[in-house]
Amino acid sequence: MKAKGEVDKLLKQAVDKGDVPGVVATATDRSGTTYEGGFGKRVLGQPADMTPDTVAWMASMTKAITGAAAMQQVERGKLDLDAPAKAVVPYLGEVGVLEGFGADGKPRTRKPKRDITLRHLLTHTAGFGYEIWNADIGKFQECMGVPGITGCENKALTTPLLFDPGERWDYGINIDWAGKMVEAASGQKLGQYMRDNVLGPLGMNDTGFFISASMRERLAKIHHRGPDDSLSPDMALEIPQQPEFEMGGGGLYGTAGDYLKFVRMMLNQGKSDGGDAVLKPATVAQMSSNAMGSTKVVLLKTAMPPLSNDAEFFPGMEKQWGLTFMINNTEAPTGRSAGSLAWAGLANTYYWIDQKKGVGGVYATQVLPFADVKSLPLFYDFESAVYGR
Length: 389
Description:
Elements: H1 4-16, E1 22-29, E2 33-40, E3 55-57, H2 62-75, E4 97-101, E5 107-110, H3 118-122, H4 135-144, H5 174-186, H6 190-202, H7 213-216, E6 222-225, E7 231-234, E8 253-255, H8 256-267, H9 281-287, E9 319-321, E10 326-328, E11 341-345, E12 349-354, E13 359-364, E14 367-368, H10 375-386
Parallel strand pairs: 6-14
Antiparallel strand pairs: 1-2, 1-13, 3-8, 4-5, 6-7, 9-10, 10-11, 11-12, 12-13
Helix pairs in contact: 1-10, 2-5, 2-6
């Protein structure tokens, strides 16, 4: 790893240039944190500094934690990766495949060729999509009065499949349904289950669906990048604090340091910093391996430019999916080993887990659109610095 002063300088210069409003970056090896830094402001125009204990919307970084919860239920025999998911959540046996829209504008659907399984959900091969990257989902929502997912209303989960389960990869509301399966199998609300079985054992005390008073004092706000590259804070954008359902696909708030404990658990074969087993070593290995056959991850083409740019990590590199993680099949230019795990959150939060080299990191800004033109390259630069490049 480069010297702390060099990494500090990299991040501070980006803030000073106005590339990002504020940033927290952390790195770890198997034994503990190797870097931690925070620069800039939590909210542009306000005095609070972006410090390492700043709370951010982790968005889709929630998915891996929901995946860990689901795999605990697999370990305990309460869920099965390859059994029909409708046995646990009956609605998953009713959802149809969208075939198009009729002359009246109404959607036409058909019965899928096979049942959805938990494996399909955890690998994003069930057929579900997001309106951010699929215009047909947006059209369906509009004509059927279905709200967007971030409102956390149960009706938001009633969008159709875009293809038959298992036929390809498309990023969508799959992990929200996996969260519903955890609730059905455990008899607990997802947030409570996570606190008891994942967050609590890992010491992730600053992470949750509910923003506590202490967390709110340290909360960064999301900023929007305008066409002229300027950044402006959005004081209203927040995941509902009394939701109909707790969004396993993207509802968690937390600190980068907390998430780093989850990264370290995955580096340490399922053990917490205190040595407690959160997952079995065999489960960690299973989650960390390609779980979708020959299917490949593809570019996410934006259908809502204010929320996301076209998004793909390391274009041209073959990528697949484990049980809630993206896997790069060859070494990345940053130094990340082939077979490493990674993903991100909509407001430009990112993490990676390199089990071969025993390192990982978490990087958090609060900027939209996703795959931001300034924040994503800064993440790559930070990761490269962790590898001493």
